[in-house]
Amino acid sequence: MTLSQLTTTLKCQPSRLYRIMRFLVHYQIFKEEPITKDSIGFALTPLSRRLSRHGERSMAAMILLQSSPVTLAPWHGLSARVLDSGNSPFETAHGKDVWSYAEENPGHSKLIDEAMACDARVAVRAIIEGCPQVFDGIKSLVDVGGGNGTALSMLVKEFPWMHGINFDLPHVVAVAPKVDGIEYVGGDMFECVPKADAAFFMWVLHDWDDEECIQILKKCREAIPQDKGKVIIVESVLEEDENDKLEFVGLMLDMVMMAHTNKGKERTLKEWKYVLGEAGFTRINVKPIHAVQSIIEAYI
Ligand SMILES: C[S@@+](CC[C@H](N)C(=O)[O-])C[C@H]1O[C@@H](n2cnc3c(N)ncnc32)[C@H](O)[C@@H]1O
């Protein structure tokens, strides 16, 4: 689009918009391209395609969550968190933890679900392409903290022999779009996890400290067959990645956990082995995929 087309569409001041576009071109969010001999237009780049609302790999919902005032406020309390062991920055800013806040604010809950779903679309594609064998022989899979079910619906579509159970807090499950072949169960993973051949966790355990993870994983042990059951954890594994860019994302997410959760954190392989071992899982395999997460398979 030319500057004048953009100005008309956005109903804004051309000179100010020009300054913003000049900055965004410098930042490679747009690029300038000739439209006719005399006019220049602005075109999308690979980066801005990810910010557009459309397309399989759109990260727009994640950006909307991360830049919302509710999500930004806790960052201002991060220094207090480092200096003393009081409430988490999220609780200091909003008076309650992130999940209770989401329960009372459906608009924010929807932002979280949609943001996680856009990451899930990318990560699950990487799992399906990189490690399909992880799902061999699994007839039923419970996605613990499965959000709006995006990950599970992709997995069940790809591996149709699997029955899927999307398990999350009742207010999340109540508004999740319903998909054939998936059962939706509301509950609390600290109390009970629905029974299945395997339990799947993506971006859930990093929200909790070691003690809490051990408690959740013990509930999973009760839910899966004692002889051949397994848990599949899709999370970052710090210090394992040779790729600098992804290592940065893992370390950045660790800061996000400090700002937004009470005691959550990203873990090294040694830390994952500790929580899994304490919960009674003895055999552990780690598989890298083409994403910031790795797949950790753990067997009783
Ligand atoms: C960071 S999101 C991950 C969502 C999804 N697994 C994904 O990667 O797209 C964490 C999820 O854990 C859920 N959750 C938090 N506390 C829970 C609890 N006590 N029992 C079950 N689910 C819980 C949240 O509602 C949220 O959907």
From TrEMBL:
The lineage of its organism: Eukaryota, Viridiplantae, Streptophyta, Embryophyta, Tracheophyta. PROSITE patterns: SAM_OMT_II. InterPro entries: COMT-like, COMT_C, COMT_dimerisation, SAM-dependent_MTases_sf, WH-like_DNA-bd_sf, WH_DNA-bd_sf. Residues 75-281 form the O-methyltransferase C-terminal domain. Keywords: Methyltransferase, S-adenosyl-L-methionine, Transferase. Residues 1-51 form the O-methyltransferase dimerisation domain. It comes from Gossypium davidsonii. This is O-methyltransferase domain-containing protein. The active site is at H206 (proton acceptor). Belongs to the class I-like SAM-binding methyltransferase superfamily. Cation-independent O-methyltransferase family. One of its GO terms (molecular function) is O-methyltransferase activity. GO terms for biological process: methylation. PANTHER family: O-METHYLTRANSFERASE (PTHR11746).
